């Protein structure tokens, strides 16, 4: 799980503090990077939330101790997640996002002018509100008239809705046991819930 540590050191007789973020990727492998500041740390009903201002990557969103995205390179992930399915679909008009609370997936989808409706369904309203306030690069996506924000479990929402979608995209946190979305990573979910809605 990601940790923030403050260490004292001395440089030429002057004491200084440095703040670092550290995350274990797997056994015997960790990464860490220096922070400018900790912008927010807290917990919602579903998960721990941190927004860090990092020296190498800019603002970084951390959920349950796992880095979700960083300002400097998040576009690589979100462009790769969104544009291949939308460009391969002959006429993508209605898109459903499972998760995507930070707004980056919606931002990329809404760049497609032919898209008429985007339903973003995230379980954690606190994360969505937090990202709306702090991740300004995605602010326009939240106020686009084509965007409908739904706060609910994506599985329950897909089961409840009768309409079909041209594309369904999952922008989900890691499938941590007991976390808010680990059941959205199963074969049966895609076979019996997602596929019939396409």
Automatic annotation (TrEMBL):
It comes from the Eukaryota. GO terms for molecular function: thermospermine synthase activity. Its EC number is 2.5.1.79. It catalyses: S-adenosyl 3-(methylsulfanyl)propylamine + spermidine = thermospermine + S-methyl-5'-thioadenosine + H(+). Keywords: Polyamine biosynthesis, Transferase. Transmembrane segments: none annotated. The keyword Transferase applies. Pfam families: Spermine_synt_N, Spermine_synth. The keyword Transferase applies. One of its GO terms (biological process) is polyamine biosynthetic process. The active site is at residue 171. Residues 18-198 form the PABS domain. SUPFAM superfamilies: S-adenosyl-L-methionine-dependent methyltransferases. Belongs to the spermidine/spermine synthase family. This is thermospermine synthase. The lineage of its organism: Eukaryota, Viridiplantae, Streptophyta, Embryophyta, Tracheophyta.
């Amino acid at each position: 799980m990601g940790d923030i540590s403050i260490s004292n050191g001395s440089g030429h007789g002057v004491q200084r503090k440095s703040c670092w973020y550290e995350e274990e990727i797997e056994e015997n492998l960790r990464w860490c990077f220096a922070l400018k500041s900790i912008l927010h740390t807290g917990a919602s009903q579903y998960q721990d939330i941190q927004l860090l201002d990092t020296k190498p990557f800019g603002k970084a969103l951390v959920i349950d101790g796992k880095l979700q995205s960083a300002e400097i390179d998040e576009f690589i992930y979100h462009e790769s997640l969104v544009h291949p399915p939308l460009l391969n679909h002959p006429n993508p008009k209605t898109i459903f996002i499972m998760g995507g609370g930070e707004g980056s997936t919606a931002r990329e989808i809404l760049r497609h002018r032919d898209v008429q409706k985007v339903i973003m369904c995230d379980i954690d309203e606190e994360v969505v509100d937090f990202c709306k306030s702090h991740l300004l690069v995605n602010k326009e996506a939240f106020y686009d008239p084509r965007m409908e924000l739904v706060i609910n479990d994506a599985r329950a929402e897909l089961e409840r809705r009768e309409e079909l979608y041209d594309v369904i995209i999952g922008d989900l946190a890691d499938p941590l046991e007991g976390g808010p979305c680990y059941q959205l990573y199963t074969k049966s979910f895609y076979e019996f819930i997602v596929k019939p809605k396409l």
